[in-house]
Amino acid sequence: MKRMIAYMAAVLLSLTVFSGCSLLEELLSSPPAITLEDPADSDLTFDDGQDSRSVSILANFAWTASSDEEWCKVSPGSGTGNAVIVISVQANDTGLDRGTEVLVGNETASVTVRVFQEADDQISVDEDSHVVKAEGGMVSFKVLSNIEYDIEMPDVEWIKEASGQTGTSHTFSVSPNEGHDGRTAVIRVVAGKIERQVEVMQLQKDAIVVHGSEVNLSHEAGIFVLTVGSNVTYEVKTSADWISLSQTKAFEEKDLVFSYTANSLPMKRTATIALTDGSITQFVDVIQDYDAVEYVLSYTHDNSFVKLPSISGENISGNIFWGDGQQAVFGMTDTHQYASSGTWNVQLEFVGSSNGVEIEFQNLTGIQEIDLSGM
Q1: How far is CA 163 from CA 20, 158, 342, in A?
Q2: Are 287 and 324 in contact (CB under 8 A)?
Q3: Average pLDDT of span 180-195
């Protein structure tokens, strides 16, 4: 009986080993396979804002996941078997649609997720200021836009949009200015809440207007006054030497009207106006600001020594508040030593160009929270 039991146990052990080897060989011999749980995830479309999507993958091997564009990130970057990856995109402020691919797998088997992101709404004009001579003429500008827009005309009669226009180039006719004063109107390019303005300034008609064309005098010597209106510099001449101009030099004030264009540079710009009569010269400095934006970055940490993140951009200036009552001017120092241990909130308040700034934390050790809502 004992021999029979031992014999049966040996048979069962042989079958178990044989069966286990078969399953192992089957697994080892299975080719690498990977697929998306939802085939629709092979094409992902994002709007222009920052966003992320989860994608489930089915795999029977160790894999890696990557994207070749900085604006598109994938996490985790590697794994084994079935998993869920997260694909994230940054806000698209380029004005252009963009796309890339996320590749998941290895050199033997892989699956591709195509990522497409729409552009943000953008509209601009190539020339936003035009000066037209008094005799009239044509004004043209080109609209650069990735959305539909409308042209809103000013409520004046002297500017007309040319008929039969197509495309993004727009031309307008300006009638002659018969008045003695310059005039200005604004053409608006509107797309929803976005508006761009094109200023059209027309010069005045040059004129010398004398009030009265004849003067009758008695035989006695004397003076008389001619009232003259003019918007040009003129010279006075007489045809006889018994009449002469009694030129006075009373102090008078007048307005000088200057036009200037928008400053698209990432910095202030300056110019000088000189007023001179040959012997006397006065200068006026004109300083035009740039399109600056206020930024606020704050983060909480529990380190006794802190080093600021790297912040790069155009014309950055501001203040650093270390959270312990101490502060510093931005750019003067990027480190701070705390007198005691604790949890500190560092806040950076600074201004920079509207072209944006780049922030990079070199070390996240001890950092508990980062607030980018003010960026």
Answers
A1: 85, 15, 71
A2: no
A3: 91
